[in-house]
Amino acid sequence: MILVTGATGFLGSALVRRLCADGQPVRILRRAAAPMDALCGAPVEEVIGDLTDAAAVDRAVAGCATVFHSAALIQYWDDRNAEQNATNIEGTRHVVAACVRHGVRRLVHVSSVAAVGYAPDGVPVDETCPYNAGPLRNNYAESKRAAEEIVRAAVANGLDAVMVNPGTIYGPGDRRRAAYVRGLVSWVSAPGGMSVVDVDDVVEGMLRAWQRGRSGERYILTAENLPYRAVGRIFAQCLGRRGPFVTLPGWLIRLGAGAIAVVARVFGRRPTLTPVMARAATAYFYYSNTKACRELGMVFRPFPETAQRTVAWLQQMGLCRIIC
Questions:
Q1: 248: Cβ–Cβ under 8 A, 6 or more apart, which residues?
Q2: How far is Cα 219 from Cα 3, in angstroms, rounded to an integer?
Q3: Cβ burial 11-21 (10 Å sphere, 16+ → b, else e)
Q4: Using an 8 Å Cβ cutoff, are 7 and 39 in contact?
Q5: 247 near 190, Cβ under 8 Å?
Q6: Confidence band (pLDDT; 50, 70, 90) for 47?
């Protein structure tokens, strides 16, 4: 039996569909209110509960030989940091403890490139990079780094676990990408850059890490490193549009984020651009995939293909109108 956490999300559901297609028995841990649409009727066993509930996690892990821990709260708003830490840090602690308690053969922990650090000079970094993202004050990165430390400590005490660190994931299946793509193809762009990867390639990397990854190691799963402006242009081309045309200076983005945060707080709303986002928009999140290619045999598809797959799915789902 294989347990998948985060199974109703973008990446987790893609993994579940792949495992079921391969004939693997799958159990999922999901919240009672979590929609099952993304699983497309995949034959799974369910345990209802939340990562923050140690007893529910224990029930889900019991009897499983393998655990894929892909659940996480991805958000960049300091008002939700406590909730994020409860899910990403304490939730991982519960998963790891249950894996140790029940003698799980292998844990595949889905981390993030954010936990690796970033590339201050734009030169891609690899898995050995000393964590250097503290000045960005990004709680998501900090929480994922802390979760990795929990996994490493368990490995030192005998748990067989491997970590994968995906870049920014695109591809069919994520409704949130409509808003993200809308921002990328606008007429303005941020000055930084990011590492991008296809969701199906991440799933393949997770399976290969499970089958052949070295215990205690992390593997960066990413296809290309691109400036935000280039990513926007690729998506714009898929939509038959031009742009972005202007790259805003970092100081202006940070100033705008501060103003938006003040207005949002006055009206009791969530800001569309937070200071955390603004700091990330001016940084280069560039990474090397050499280790994953060498040790896992990974081959990543070019990003224009992923962008086209993403746009085609959004159009099929009737979400493209949000972008165009």
A1: 188, 189, 190, 191
A2: 21
A3: bbbbbbbbbbe
A4: yes
A5: yes
A6: very high
Q: Report the C-alpha gap between 79 and 76 in whole angstroms.
A: 9
Q: How far apart are CA 134 and CA 136, in angstroms?
A: 5
What rounded mean pLDDT belongs to the chain? 93
Q: Give the C-alpha separation, 14 to 11, whole Å.
A: 5
Cβ–Cβ under 8 Å, residues 211 and 176: no
Long-range CB pairs of 270-274, under 8 A, 24+ apart, other chains included: 270/77, 270/79, 271/77, 274/76, 274/77, 274/78
pLDDT digits (tens, 9 = 90+) for 96-143: 999 999 999 999 999 999 999 999 888 999 999 999 999 999 999 999
Separation between Cα atoms, residue 247 and residue 120, nearest integer Å: 18
Please give the radius of gyration of the chain, using alpha carbons only, rounded to the nearest integer: 19
Decide: 199 and 223 in contact? Cβ < 8 Å: no
What distances in angstroms separate CA 26 from CA 11, 49, 68, one per listed residue?
15, 16, 10
CB–CB of 235/184 below 8 Å? yes
Tell me the catalytic residues. Answer: 140
